[in-house]
Amino acid sequence: MNTSTTDASDLAGAKVMVIDDSNTIRRSAEIFLLKAGCEVILAEDGFDALAKITDHQPEVIFVDIMMPRLDGYQTCALIKKNPRLREIPVIMLSSKDGLFDRARGRLVGSDEYLTKPFTKDTLLEAVRRHRPQSS
């Protein structure tokens, strides 16, 4: 009895960005989100993401912490410093579950912190919690 699929339609049309340098993580997140009816934008690092955010206007952003060039903390800080983007919820993804990492995520303005590997349900619940309610 899988109840999460019956209420997945409430996420239909949600624009979600996943920023991760791991192809595996990006693909598994994409599969979970597409099955729930979300529109998915993928980016492999912070620079790639920042170029795509303005074009696609995602409603929720998942960002990996450990990435080359621009890490998740720097990416989140840049999003939150931009007046046009700062309202977009940013959820940190990390394989580290330390207090320091969580605190640092909060300092740069992240809205939530998920530990990898995540499940389909934790991913979709996070989107549900942070997606702006359509008026």
Shape: globular
What is the rounded distance between the termini?
32 Å
Multimer state: single chain
Mean pLDDT: 91
Largest sheet: number of strands, sense, barrel closure: 5 strands, parallel
Strand-residue fraction?
Answer: 15-25%
* Rg calculated over all Cα atoms: 14 Å
CATH superfamily: Response regulator
Order of strands across the widest beta sheet? Answer: 2-1-3-4-5
CATH topology group: Rossmann fold
Find the structural class using helix and strand composition. alpha/beta
Could you name the ranges where pLDDT drops below 50 across 5 or more consecutive residues?
Answer: 1-6
Helical segment count? 5
Order of H and E elements: EHEHEHEHEH
Number of strands: 5
Q: What is the helix fraction of residues, given as a range? A: 40-55%
Q: How many domains in all?
A: 1
Tell me which CATH architecture applies here: 3-Layer(aba) Sandwich
Classified by CATH, the class is Alpha Beta
Features:
135 residues
Describe this structure in words.
With 135 residues, this protein is α/β, with parallel strands linked by helices. Helix content is 40%, strand content 18%. It has a single domain (12-127), classed as Rossmann fold. The chain is built from five helices and five strands. Strand 3 (60-64), helix 3 (72-81) and strand 4 form a beta-alpha-beta unit. The protein is globular. The model is unreliable at 1-6 (pLDDT under 50).
